[in-house]
Amino acid sequence: MSVSSIGMESTGYRVFSGGIWEEKYGYARAVVAGDRVIVSGCTSTVDGEVRHVGDAYRQAMTAIDIALEAVLMGGLTREDVIMVRYYVVEQRHFDLAGRAINEVFGKVRPACTGVRVAGLVDPRMLVEIEIEALRA
């Protein structure tokens, strides 16, 4: 499943992916504020279904792809990413999510925070990722 199939659209200062949680909980996938794009937490949910159940690494890669699509829709690129926040539900997932972040952002070197949480909105979700980007 590719991120482009999600069909993100930009509406001025907001980016919407059409994801089920955006509509249900009343938020945008990303907000464009001046030279910044702030992306809401992304999981491996595609077309309403959690992908890669049980695989934290692949969930992280999918979440990053979704978040980067929102950054692009906001007019910035991967090289503009300045902050990555990630949330995992199990201690053993830190290295798996970290590996995905390094593969995508290793040359960019944004600031990064990883947090272990009690759970995410769907128990099949293992990783959630937020990204902030700034036009240099």
TrEMBL record:
Pfam families: Ribonuc_L-PSP. It comes from the Bacteria. InterPro entries: RutC-like_sf, YjgF/YER057c/UK114. PANTHER family: BLR7761 PROTEIN, YJGH FAMILY PROTEIN. This is Enamine deaminase RidA (YjgF/YER057c/UK114 family). It comes from Nonomuraea fuscirosea.
